[in-house]
Input
Amino acid sequence: MTRSLYSKFILGYLIFGLLGFLTIATFSSRMVREHLVQEQADSLYDEAHMIAATYSNMYQGERQDAGQVSSQIRILAQYLRAEIWIINRQGTIVMDSLGGTRVQTQVEEFDPTALGSRSYSIGDYYGFFDGNVLSVSAPITGNYNTYGYVLIHLPMSQISNSQSSILNILYISAAMLFGLSLIILLVFTQTVYLPLRKINEGANEYAAGNLDYRIDVPT
Output
C-alpha cells in the first residue's frame, strides 16, 4: 500500500512539472508574443504619427528641409531597427530610410484601408520583405486632405528574440520553483511514507507471531 501511495505521489509530482512546462511553452508563449506585438505596434504607431505630423506641416506651407527630414528618418530607423517609408496616395514610395533605394518603387495593390480597425499588420507586405514584418501606417494630412502615409516595418525576428529572452527567464524560474518543490517531496517522505512503511513492517511481524516487535514510530 505504502509503495503504491508513494509511487502515485511521485507520479503526481512529475505530472505537475510537465503540465507547468507545457503551460509556459504554450499559453505563456502566446501571451508574451501578443503583448510584445501590441506594445511594439503602439510604439511604432506613435513614431509614425510624429513623422506624419512633420510632413503635414510641409503640405500646409511650412518650410522644411527635405534633406534634413530624410536624415532624421534614417537616424530614427536605425534607432528603431526598422525600415521607414513615405508613400503617396497612389502607392509610390517617395522617401525611405535606406538612402533612397526604394524611392519611386510602386507598391502594387496598395490599400491604406486594408488594416480596418487594426493599427498594424504582420506579413511580407506585398512581397517586399523576405520574412514577416510588423507594419504600421499613419496618414499624412493637411488642409483636410490626405497626401500620403508613413509606413514603419519592424522585422518580426526582433520580437521573436525578445520573446525568447522573456521565455528563458520564465523557464529558469519554473525550473527553480520545480526544484524547490522537492522540499514537499522530502517532507512527505519523512513524515508520511517512512512511518507508514515501518507500520506496515510491524503489522507483518505481528501477523507472523512476533508480538515483541517494536514499531519505531514516535509520532
Remarks:
- The chain has four helices and five strands.
- The first strand starts at residue 83 and ends at 88.
- Strands lie at 83-88, 93-96, 120-123, 133-142, 145-155.
- The first helix runs from residue 2 to 59.
